[in-house]
Every structure is written in C-alpha cells, then in structure tokens.
Amino acid sequence: PFWLNRPWFKRPSLGGSRRLGGWTMSRWNYWVTAQPATAVTHAICPLCLTSTEPSDLVVVRGGTRLEVFRVGLQGGSPSSVCRLPIHGRVCGLQALRPAGSSRDLLLLLTEKRQVVVLRFADADDQGAGRLVTVATGSTQDAVGRMAVDHPPFFACDPDGRAAAVYMYEGLLQVVALGAVPAIARCGSAAAEEAGVAGPVDLSAAGVIYGTQDAKPQLLDLTFLYSTAPAAAAAGEPARPLLATLHSDCQDLRTARIWSADLEARAVTPGGSASRSSSSSVAVKAGASRLVPVPLPHGGLLVLGGSAAAYYDGTFQRAASAACGPAKVSAVAARVNVGGVKWLISGSDGELWLLRLRTAASGSSSSSAAAAPESFELVLERLGLVSPPRALAWLADDRAFVGSAMGDSQFLCFSKAEMDGNRFTIEETWMNLGPVVDFCIVDVDDQGQNQVVTCSGAGHAGSLRLLRIGVGVNEAGSLDGFAGVLGLWALPHVGGGALALSFASGTRLLALQPGGTELQEWPAPGFSCDEETLLCCEAQGLALQVTRTGVQAVNVKDLAAVVRWAPPKGSRIQVAAVAPGGTVVALGGAAGEVMFLRAVAGAEGGGHMEVARTWHLDAEVSCLHARAGLCAVGLWTHELRVLPLRAGAEPSPSWPLPGTAVPRSAAFAHLAGRLRLFVGLGDGVLVTWDVEEATGELSRRNAVHLGTRPMQLLPFGSRAGDEEHVFATGDRPMIIHGSASAVGQLAYAAVNLRLVSHIAPFDVAPFAGCLAFVAEQRLMVGNFDEIQRVHVRTVPLGECPHRIAYHKGAGVFAVACQNVGAADPRQAGAASLRFVAARSLTLSEAVRMEPRELVGAMCSAVLDGDSTEYLAVGSAFVNPEDPEPMKGRLVLYAPTASAENGEPAPFTVAAELEVTGAVYSLLPFRGMLLGSVNNRVVLWKLCHGDPRRLREVCCHGASMMALHLRAEGNHILVGDLMRSASLLEYSPAGPSLEEIARDSSSAWLSAVEMLGEELFLCADDTHNLFTLARGTAAGAPVAAVRPRAGHRSRGPAEDPRAKLERVGQMHSGEFVNRMQRSVLAKPVTAAGVPEAGSFTPVEQVVWASTDGAIGLVASLRSEEEFVRLSLIQDAVSREAPAIGGLLHGDWRNVLTESGEPLPHRGFVDGDLLELLLEMPRKRQQAVAVFLASQGVVVDGVEGLLHEVEQLARLH
C-alpha cells in the first residue's frame, strides 16, 4: 500500500529557553516510555537455561526487553523468572548448547553489530537468579555497506561451534565460539571460583572474521545438524555446515551449502570432499525460509511460496508438499526432538502442521537407514492465529505464538475443533503494535485523555483505547440526586442500604434481600426531617448522627433503641466512625470532642456512653478515627491526633500548609506503613507517616489534586492485600502504593467528574462495589485494577491505518484495508468505518472506489460554515505506477447527531480530484492544508450549490511530503528523504514560501512542532532529534544586509534559513506518529518553590511500530536538564550493563554509515525511573554518589520523590 511506502520497507551546543509566538520553547527534553513495547520479536522454547530441564521460554519484546519464563509441564500460565532491559535493539536471538554442557546459553545480535553471549546464574546470596554476560564482541566492519532491503540474518551451529551473521551486503561473517570459557557453559554461579575473571572479548580474541559473498541476494541462512560421524568415517574433519537461500534478479531461488573452516578462517562452497552432490540446488519460487532437520534424518526444509520441500543429507530433494503458508514470510518451530513434526505459519496467520514421514510405513520414523526416496511431507491446516513472528512448542500439546502484528497467544491442541481451529487459545498477551496512527481525545470531557490507536494487521487489526488512570465499571445508576450533603452505607439494613443526607432531611434507599433495585426504605427510628452528619453500624446497631444528637436503632427493623443528646445549648458539628461507636465534635470555640461507645443490650436494647472527652480550644472542621487514633482538623489550620485508649495523652498540634481549612481526613495503610491524609479546602492533599503506637507524625508531603474541597475514603483492593484512598473533588483520584517504587505513593486519575461523595457498598449483588454521587447521579460500580495503563479493544477484522475523531458526531472515523480477505474481489478493498466513541459500536462501512486507499483524515471547521466536516484524502493505486497519479479529497458531513450510542451517518458534502496521493491533512486558518505527492497545497471551501473545494496556493519543493504540522502561519513539512523544511503562509499573496530547511538527509517517520521555531523529528533508524531555526539555534538575530554593489545573500546563506540539530538521541523505537498532547495531568507538589518541581513546558505523545507509547516532555531550563542528566548518569552506574552494552553507546545516534554521533539534549527517562525499581542498597549508592559530585539531594527519600514526580507524567 502506498502509505506504507516508508523507509522501513525500502530505502536507498546547549542554549537557553525562548518565548516566541506565545510559545515557551526548550531544546532540553525528557524522553520516557509510558507503555513498553508489546510486540514479540523473538521467542525460543524449550530451553535448559535456568535448569537442566527443558522448561524455559525466552521472549524478546520490542527488540529491547528480554524476558525469561518457566513453563509448567502440566499446563498453566508461564511464571516469570526474570526480565531485563537491553541497551541495544535485538535483531537476532539463538540458543547455544556448547559440547558437553547440560544447559543452554543465549546468543544475541543487536542492530549496532554487537554479539553477546549470556548465561543464567543460579540464585546466591546476592539475590534471585539472573542473566550474566559470558562473552561479547562486535561485527562492525569499516567498509561494509549495511543491507537495506532485509533485516540482519543470524544463525548458530547446533553443536555450538560457530555463529553466522549477515548484516552487510555481500559480507558473511563467522563467529567462532570455541573461546567461550568452559566453566560458563554449565550455568553455575561458581564461575568466579574457577578463575573466570569476566566476559570474553570475542573481537580481541580474533574469532570474528568475514568472507566476501558475491552470490545473489540473500534471503535466509541456517546451520545444518552435525555430520561428524560421516566425516570421521571419510577421514575428514567435521566442520559446521551452513545453508543459505538466494534470489537473483529474475527472482529465481537457489539454496547453497557452505563449509566453515574455523581454523583456516574461511567459508568454502560445498560440504566434505566425500560428497558427490552439488553445493547448490534450485528451489521453488517464493521460498523464503530454511529449517534444519535434526539427526538421524538430517538435511534441510525449504518453506514458502505455498509449498514445502525436504532435502536430505546429500542435498537431494527427497519429498515435497504443494500447500502451506501462501505468504513469503514463513515461520517454523520444531515440535518434537526427533524433528519429524513442525508448526509452520506465515504472515497471513494460517497455522499448519508439517510431518516428515516414510512412505513405506505411513508414519513418523526415526530410522537412520531409511532411503531418501521413502520420505514424504504431509501438511495439515490447524487454524488461524495472530500473524506470528515466532513459534515455540512448549510442552503437553501446547504452543506459543509470538506476534508483532496482533496479540501473542498460548495454544492448547485438542481433537475437538473450535471455530474451525484444531486448538483452543488458553491465554493472550496484549500487543498494541504496529501502531500506524493514533488520536488523543477526552471523550467524556473529564480531563482524562485516551489514546486511540490503529493497531494490528490483517485479520488481527483493531482499535485500542489506552487510558492512563483507573476506570469505573458502572453496575447501576439513578438520576435526580441534587443537593446531596452526605452518603453512607448500612450493609445489614435490608439487603444493603444507602443513607443520603440533604439540607431538608434524610433518605434511606435499600435493596430487598436478594434484590437488585434500590427503593425507599422506612426508618422509623431515624430523624428523617433533619440533616444527617453520619450514618454507620456499630455493635449490631445503626447509628444516625444529626446536629441535635445520636440515634441508635435496631438494624433489623430500624426501630429506636436509644438516643444521646449533647449538653444543653450545644450542637454537633462534625462526626466520624470510631471503633465500637462514633466520635463527635461539638460546635463552638471550645473544640469539645467526645468518643461515644455504643453498647448493645439484650432483646434489641442498648445504651451509649461517653468513653473520652477532649477540649482543643479551636473549632473542629473534620474527623477520622482508626487504629486507636483520631485525627482532628481545626479551623485554625492545624491538625491534632488524639489517642482513643484511656489514659493516653494527645499529641501536640501540627501546622498545615497554606491558609485553606482542612475539610477531610483519613488514616490508611499504604505502601507498607500507616499514613494520614488530610484534604484541604483548596484541593491540596497533605500526607504524613504515622507512628501507630504514639500517633507521632513525620515526613509531611503536599500535592495539588484539584481546586475544590475533597472527601477521602479508604477502601480495600480487589486482592485484599492493601488499601487505597479515594479522593473526591473536581479531579477524582485514587492514591495507592507505587508498584515500582517501594514505600512511595502513586496517584491514578479516575474517569468520573465532580464526585462529591463516596461510600463502600460491598453487598450482593454489588460485591466489591462503591457508591458515588457525581453530578446529580447516584452510581454504583467498581474500579478497574490499579495499574498504570488500561487498554480496551475494538476488533475490526481488517487492517486500520488512519483515524480521526469527529467530536460533533461523537465518532471515530477509521480507514481500513481488507488485507488477506477470503474473497479475492474484496482483497485490498478500502473502507471507512465509524465507531461510536462512548459505546464503541460499529456502523456500516463506507466502501471506497476500486483501487482507492485512504492516506489522510482529519476533522475541520472551515470558514463561513459552522459544520464540523470529516476530510478524507485518498489515492488510486496502480501497481504499474511508482507513485499514485490520481487521488481524491472528500468532505463528509454528519446528517444527524449520534443517538442511542450508534454512530451518526455521514454524507458527501464536497469532492475534489487531485493529481497524486494525499498523504497528510490538517485544518489551517479556516482552510484545509494537505500534501499531495511532493506538493503542499492549501484548499478553501466555496459555498454555493453545490459546495466545492478550490486550491488557494501550493508549494512544491519536496521529494515526498509525508508529514505536516502547523502553528500560526508556520508549516513544518516532513519529507521522505530530505528531512524537514519550514514554510510560511502569507495571506497577502496568498502564497506558501520556504523560509528554512534542514540541509542534512533523513528519512523521517514522524514530526511535531514544539513551537514555531523548534521541532521534534523521528527517523527510520530509530533516532529522535530536535531542529531549531536561526536564533533559536544560536545564530545572530540581526538581519543580513547586503553591501553596496553586492547581491543579497540567498536563503541558503541566511542563518535564519537553516534548521540545525540542537538535540539528538537513539530511542530504539520506530516512532510512527507524534502528537502534541498529554497522557495524564500530573499531580504537582504544593507549597514547594517552582524550581523544585519538574513541570514540562510542552509534551508530545509518540507511538511506535512495536506497540510502545511514550512522552517527550520539554524541560524548562538548562539547570533542570543538567540536574536530571547527573541523576541519570548516577543511576547508570548502579544499573547493570547486560552484555557489556553501555547506556551511552546505546543512546548515541545510529547513522547509515555506521559512525555513531553523540547523543545530546535528551534525558533518558527509562533509565532515570529505573531508580524507583532498584533495591534500597543501590538507591542509597546513587544518592551517595550524587552527593559526592556536589548535587544537593534530600537523602534517598527526597531523590525518590523527585523521580516519582517525573513518573507521574505518564
């Protein structure tokens, strides 16, 4: 498809912040991943990595994260053993079993030509088992030309003697692995005791060498299984045999055999001299994969092109099958040790079982004496899975499908068919990749953004909705609850009841036992004509606290039992639940607080007694009691902690920050300790650590959660192992213990607006639920699991590649292509799908014309019309044309508003034919801006009957204008090959003129404007860089005036006409899209000087082909950047560099020539936030090192708090 004609498919000094055009710009940026890459790029199983049992599954996700799992022999989910980030992008993963070893090693190849050998070290006194480095090396070649039309090829000899690498055109490199220490092969933690000083340097040992290969294009390579016995019988040395698959200019496929002479450092055609067969053989057209066959059979499988062929040990074709994966990219995994069964799939997701058996017996055989002509191949279709990148046979008739184009799956094979498949899917691993496009919207207008991605490919295509925060799963709701002053639950009244307080009285709503509907419930013992301050249950009684007293009633019939009244002339001001009763505060400056204990009597009777009394000399504003302590907020901006047990003395008062009055308080056990939370009237939340024995407070912290008073409610998690705190207000929030930073608090936004009251309502049939009052609605529901990112999926069954949000109609418009349809007439057909933003229901698709594909979409309101249009740009694709010669620009208008959650229908309002493919569209000054092939065009809507689009002006100096961004009159153009340029719109002409350009070459994959003169770009080699224009890059501001008699300087000589790189880093992610927005509104510190908190100037959200979602946040100053850089470097000292891959080398910019450029201007947030996950000992070492370098930090806790602020951005 033309929109995928991108580089990854085919390719040939610090300054200050500035305020320009209303933008505060910064060239110092903080790069971080919010959602790690989810695409599985490599998988191997079974392995004897952690033990001598073949029970390990090794997975690489996104190319940068290595994970080891232990797979049970009796089924069940795999258990995680370890996971670690790699300072490199893994492009090859092989298992290495050295001779005489009972355990496997891991052999990795990275995109920067590094080879790493890892082993698993068993658990010792330093902690759990871990991966350690055995050997490292580099395959860097000074004169080699990197292959651009295929990924690197990597293979390892089954006997562990050598590995082969093909990264440069025409250059085959061999790595002799005999230098790996023998002690490292056992996987024992006692390697140090045997004198192994450290990793072996394979490059220094001289065991990496290359040989020129003049053969046609290489498609695949693999090592064959050993023929040592046959070679010994012939009196020849046993050498590793390498098989390669080639294609010539006429697409004729050839397989070749090579012999690797490790001593002579040469690779020669053919096997041993005793072989009578040729060293090459022609194979079927479309073949794309080579798979070695284990002994005793030996030989080679050639797969692809809807066929499979087996070549025996003499390289003669012994069997073939004319079916199998139709796509050219086939994947295979050996099923059993005998090598007579394989699982095979291609990029279409069709899963096949391949059997190699003897024709005589009709069954699988392991006889070495079978004649070559007796073999036959049998292919059986098993079903449809996610398009796989890797297949691995686990155990007990189960398999793993690792996918980069859909969700990864765990399969269980059974005789019974399900949905036409001969297996069941036991478990899936969510994968967002490849993210081709995305939009960021706040559908519910609650201040909580969602990232909606076009994810997956083929039949695995879907929309994914990502939300940073916590969602509420609504179980039921009622309208008409305006003016609610309080909400409490009485779980033993009826089937469960809710008490609601109003200024004019109190209402009780309850469930009938076994019922599901709330209804009015009589409460004869309650004072229903008064405002209620508190309702609770204690000692088998239901208590109602009003301003005139406390009523105790029977929970069965709510009949009155006893009433307590305050002293004459006093009224109750505030009340809170206490163990066995309630704590009440009387009005007045005396600040009298009483602890009332309810005592149940026989036959439904009882009484109330005053257990303790305090006089605080200040009026009370809020109360909360727990664990024998009572927190009291005072109108004098102070806090007191009172012990409820007899004889204990109260603590002194604690001052509160600011001038706002405390409105709510709550004790809760979070992050391993008792904490006290106090919500102030201005939306500030104050927290303390509490000493339970004495009530002493320490480590005060304050953050802004909103602007309104809040109510605090502790509640238990679903797992029941810890508590959370819900904070109401204009920005509802859940406070919980951080999963990454032990002992730290984390804040998760809730997708509700203006929650005023909350109460637990854990009754059947609403188990684990809470009741909320929000915007005059009473709602019952439960929370999602407390985690950083929540994902919802809308399956589409076809490949989505463009998305736009139409706010007026409340729909997502999604452009799809039906790739791989069963009906050939529908294959490749494009359509527009409309998805309701709230209900996520799909409408009927709008089919595009034959051979028409959508390239760009946006919503726009144009001059002279209040209608919000959906603009769609397309291209008519002819396979014979190098680029589309014709396209369309269509404006769709909604004919009605969305009703009942269904998407609104759209009709064509205007249409224009263009001479090329529309790659980008966006609204611009009441007009429509777009790119058509190499031109940037501005269109205007002409009103009339009919309405039509008219071209206003254009600019055509690009190779292929793929990306557009605009701010003010400035337009940023991202080109396919010529990097970025800046245009300016002049209304006087009107005209578009180029005013600046990046003179370097870069294949851009995404662009975004950080300001009118500062830009962020991503290229196809996984790099990010920032461009600044003229004075922003340090050039003089003064205009250049020509001298008399001289011509004026051209644009290329004007410093203002240059876009210069002021920052760059290697991200390791292929960034497909960027958009200026935020993932989560950060919780900012209160009462802290502005310089002490990290508030970004601007934020850009990015998404990658591997399913990663992240942020680039612009920092405010050079001082902030330097401080974070120092912390980053200190963390790097304590973070283990697996495989000797250093962080600085990893972030250096990768160039096509292979020469790295130093990274600058970016802080690596992934490394910096690794501090939160480190053991306490390493955290202390980081703090000590920073102090030794003169960096002022407030100990370990202060450093963790500083880094946690940055983590809250996502």
UniProtKB/TrEMBL annotation:
UniProtKB keywords: Nucleus
InterPro entries for this protein: Beta-prop_RSE1/DDB1/CPSF1_1st, Beta-prop_RSE1/DDB1/CPSF1_2nd, Quinoprotein_ADH-like_sf, RSE1/DDB1/CFT1, RSE1/DDB1/CPSF1_C, WD40/YVTN_repeat-like_dom_sf, WD40_repeat_dom_sf
Organism: Alexandrium monilatum
Localization in the cell: Nucleus
Listed GO CC annotations: nucleus
Domain RSE1/DDB1/CPSF1 first beta-propeller: 43-417
Similarity-based family: Belongs to the DDB1 family.
Any one GO molecular function term: nucleic acid binding
Disordered: region residues: 1038-1057
Identification of the protein by name: DNA damage-binding protein 1
Domain RSE1/DDB1/CPSF1 second beta-propeller: 480-782
All residue ranges annotated as the RSE1/DDB1/CPSF1 C-terminal domain in the record: 842-1169
Pfam families: Beta-prop_RSE1_1st, Beta-prop_RSE1_2nd, CPSF_A
